[in-house]
Amino acid sequence: MQLEQIHTTPDPYAPYLLSQAIRAGGLLYISGQAGVGDDGAIVGADDFDAQAAQAFRNLERVLLAGGSSLQRVIKVTIYLTSMRHFGKIVELRRQWFAPPYPADTIVEVAALYAPEAMIEVEAIAAAG
């Protein structure tokens, strides 16, 4: 099976030596997308809504770069530093996805890659 690296330009994840996504067969595996701008800095350090919106924009951008879309997402895993934001995740799912909604796992973690990061979203999508 051939693996194809997917990235966007600019690629804020390049310094971390990871792929934004990998296409393998008919699937696209998206690395965790955080609320970072093109410069790699967290958007809205103390603002969950701003970070979440940016994380989903980043997810959409990588999906499009890989030849997929939000409508082709099969599974998402959402990492939160606090479950107090769970209700907002339901709204974000309604805003960014359409029925049939993807399978989903939401996990609270003690920390993400940066102390100010509050959300990270990874996904598996159908490619092509």
Counting DSSP E segments of at least 2 residues, the number of strands comes to 6
Low-confidence stretches: none
Mean pLDDT: 94
What percent of the residues sit in helical stretches (DSSP H or I)? 10-25%
Number of helices: 2
Q: In angstroms, what separates the terminal alpha carbons? A: 16 Å
SSE ordering: EEEHEHEE
Judged by helices, strands and strand pairing, the structural class is: alpha+beta
Shape: globular
Q: Please list the strands of the largest sheet in the order they lie side by side.
A: 1-2-3-6-4-5
Kindly estimate the percentage of residues that lie in beta strands according to DSSP. 25-35%
Integer-rounded radius of gyration? 14 Å
